[in-house]
Amino acid sequence: MVGKIAVEAVEEKRQRLDELSKFIWNHPEAGFKEYKAQEKVVELLKEEGFQVETGVGGVPTAIKAVFGSGHPVIGFMGEFDALPGLSQRVSSTKETIEGQPYGHGCGHNLLCTAHVGGAIGLKEEMIKRNLPGTIALFMCPGEELLTGKPLMARGGAFEGIDVAVNFHPNKINEATTGVSTAVNSMKFHFHGKTSHAANAPENGRSALDAVELTNVGANYLREHVPSDVRIHYTITNGGVVPNIVPDEAEVWYYVRAFSREVVEDVYERLVCVANGAAMMTDTTVEVEFLGGCYNTQNNIVLANVVAEAMNEIPQEPWSEEELAFAAALDEKTADSAKATTKKYGLSKDTHLYTGPGKVTSFNSYGSTDIGDVMHLLPTAYFFTACTNMGAPAHSWQFTACAGSSIGEKGMIYAAKVMAVYGAKLIENPELIKQAKEVFDKQMEGRVYKCPIPDHVGVPQ
């Protein structure tokens, strides 16, 4: 099997990889503040002989680690940020860890470590077989904020990469060719005039009224946008008490769609709605653009390489304890578990996936900033089974699995898959040529433009 040395190398490094994953899981950090994770990743990669650079693309916690020289240059796109409000023990009931506000409810501790393991495995294959090429491993901050990779791209971090791969923990083993949405994130800050709401309402100009009118206008806008558009919002500041006319108010919006062009069009229309609300209330509005990312653009050639690698590497069996743990979690979200097994044509009694790696084409209304990389170069995007069937994304159940042996097994499997994926591409350069042909056809002459303007800096 191509990649046999790489697979063995990942297994040999398993304890060290487990330690890294567990450390990141035990020390969850917010997007763009992943300093503890960065330090541990850098330490391991230097031990493994990689040339390591931090602050890549002008993003302080970003990492680029390189091994080898020449082409092909294969990019591994890792992430390591956590989510607020998802602190959780490895338990089948909801148990917050006291004093820990964040948690890995998207499994980025597994995601990070799998990419590290894949790069290490491929490195050993290259050394022992004297293979040409370069490994470029990236650790990308702030994916949960959907701005890490766009900011890195804006800073030129991904220049010179031939092909890339991105793994994410999920429920089954699949390489996806479906589309996830592009997104823009923005806040509307309204400024009015305060007054006593009962004694002198005529002197007030309510910023909250402007927020509410914006939301009403946005809900009417939904009637006249393409069917794939999603608009959602939350009021982050609505005033203090009812008897004071609020002079400051704020609403935070996301606009999503299956193409970057549609997102930008709807965003501009939503800005018009906010401006109109300001005019109606005699207030002013400040638009704060927080960031955005592209829709995914998966490459069928590379998806097939991933699926082939999956089906050449045996999936580690689940223990009775792991199956019982997953079943207990599924009891908490029975409807979600039922929907997942139905979606994938599995038995309703399935709690942990065992089976072949599939190439699927399910679309997702969620977003991920790997889409920006996919508009720069051919990229594969895949999942391995790391959670119970009913674990919702961004949930305490997902966090529990990410810290358990269930997540660990899926992570090691993914690391082996990525290492073999890289070896197959080096072994057969024709695949890279074919992947680039597919990419060029997808782009149709378009050129990537970072969706985040130059004046918007890295979140502090």
Please name the defining characteristics of this protein.
460 residues, alpha/beta, four-stranded antiparallel β-sheet
Q: How much helicity do the residues have?
A: 40-55%
**Low-pLDDT residue spans:** none
* Number of β-strand runs: 14
**Shape, principal axes of CA atoms:** globular
Which class do the helix and strand fractions yield?
A: alpha/beta
Please describe what this structure looks like.
The protein is α/β, with parallel strands linked by helices and 460 residues long. 41% of the residues lie in helices and 19% in strands. The protein is built from 14 helices and 14 strands. It has helices spanning 4-12, 14-26, 35-47, 108-129, 148-154, 207-221, 260-281, 300-312, 320-332, 334-343, 370-374, 396-402, 405-427, 429-443, and strands at 51-54, 63-69, 73-79, 83-84, 102-103, 133-140, 163-170, 174-176, 182-191, 230-237, 248-257, 284-293, 358-360, 379-385. Strands 1-2-6-3-7-14-8-13 form an eight-stranded mixed beta sheet, sandwiched between helices. A four-stranded antiparallel beta sheet has the order 10-11-9-12. Strands 4-5 form a two-stranded antiparallel sheet. A hairpin with an 8-residue loop joins strand 1 and strand 2 (63-69). Helix 1 crosses helix 4. The radius of gyration is 23 Å and the shape is globular. The model has no long low-confidence stretch (mean pLDDT 97).
